[in-house]
Design a protein that fits this description.
InterPro entries: Znf_LIM (IPR001781). One of its GO terms (biological process) is cell-cell adhesion. Residues 4-64 form the LIM zinc-binding domain. It comes from Balaenoptera physalus (Fin whale). This protein has a domain at 63-98. The protein is elongated, with a radius of gyration of 18 Å. 8% of the residues lie in helices and 18% in strands. It has one helix spanning 55-62, and strands spanning 18-20, 23-25, 44-46, 52-54, 85-87, 90-92. The protein starts with 17 loop residues before the first strand and ends in a 6-residue tail after the last strand. It has a two-stranded antiparallel ribbon with strand order 1-2. A two-stranded antiparallel ribbon has the order 3-4. The protein has a two-stranded antiparallel sheet with strand order 5-6. It is mostly beta strands. The longest helix has 8 residues, at 55-62.
């Protein structure tokens, strides 16, 4: 059998193959580990354990937490970089720092 197998469901890939992270996937099987949204054609990232995340969930999971409001410090919508204040080894949103 020469058909490649999907690295998620292990079933043969009969039609379009999505290749990412050195593996083959059915397009509908290539999803974020947190929100399970399809990442076919969407930017994604991989954590140190090799788990695939949409960009938003990666930031939610790994972003530093603000010392005031305890929420993750994430990029503004449409931005790729995060702006934060670091003082006394603590992280703050710009609007939370006093």
């Amino acid at each position: 059998n020469t058909l490649e197998q999907c690295s998620v469901c292990s079933k043969p890939i009969m039609e379009r193959i999505l290749r990412a992270t050195g593996k083959a996937y059915h397009p509908h099987c290539f999803t974020c580990v947190m929100c399970h949204r399809s990442l076919d054609g969407i930017p994604f990232t991989v954590d140190a354990g090799g788990l695939i995340h949409c960009i938003e969930d990666f930031h939610k999971k790994f972003a530093p937490r603000c010392s005031v409001c305890k929420e993750p410090i994430m990029p503004a919508p449409g931005q790729e970089e995060t702006v934060r204040i670091v003082a006394l080894d603590r992280d703050f949103h710009v609007h939370c720092y006093r």
